[in-house]
Amino acid sequence: VRDRAGMVHPGWVCLLQSLLLLATARQSRGPVGACPLRGKSELNSFLWTIKRDPPSYFFGTIHVPYTRVWDFIPENSKKAFQQSHVVYFELDLTDPYTISALTSCQLLPQGENLQDVLPRDIYRRLKRHLEYVKLMMPSWMTPDQRGKGLYADYLFNAIAGNWERKRPVWVMLMVNSLTEVDIKSRGVPVLDLYLAQEAERLRKQTGAVEKVEEQCHPLNGLNFSQVRQRLAGWHRALGWLLGRHVESRSMGIGLE
């Protein structure tokens, strides 16, 4: 279910913080006593313990490439993951149905396109911005990505393919992930997916605590007036970006 870039389609890395449940650790060796004093490195670890026998754990994750945060995750959290033999994630990102359902839920109703629902000026700015991103993407990619066989056109289509059919809120999330910094990290799984891959590799039992519909419906339920304020800010940001793009033409970079 993962493509050559190791990504989850489409733009899933841009969703809100998730909740990872590490459940049913191996049997404890004795009764739970008084909580010992902990070192500073063990505090504020986003790990909660459910006191039972065997114990269970809650761990808060974030949808960013795991290499950005892995070194900052305290050892107690990593140990809880290693010792658990049942792991529940926000969504099952290794299930093909999950990826397919996420793709479908982002689309406008049949017969509608983004051009039909966005103000004309915003749509035009968006289209020009995406043209610029596609033009710049080869220069944003790293030698390591090229060495793994990733191509700029493939990467752009993996992230922004079929964008004219997406709902505005999902397009905004997509645009947020089309930055040079984010492009350079493509091919590295987000923390949730990395842990799911590790759980699979270690042959742990896995599951999900939410369904795709529970993720999609709240965002899809936003009416246009609720999205309008975000679109206004987005409009100004695109205007600034496109102004920078025009400046770059003098250095031999064009949009046409």
UniProtKB/TrEMBL annotation:
The keyword Ligase does not apply. Divalent metal cations. Mn(2+) or Co(2+). Its EC number is 3.4.-.-. It is a single-pass type I membrane protein. It is found in: Cell membrane; Membrane. Pfam families: TraB_PrgY_gumN (PF01963). It comes from the Eukaryota. This is Metalloprotease TIKI. It comes from Bambusicola thoracicus (Chinese bamboo-partridge).
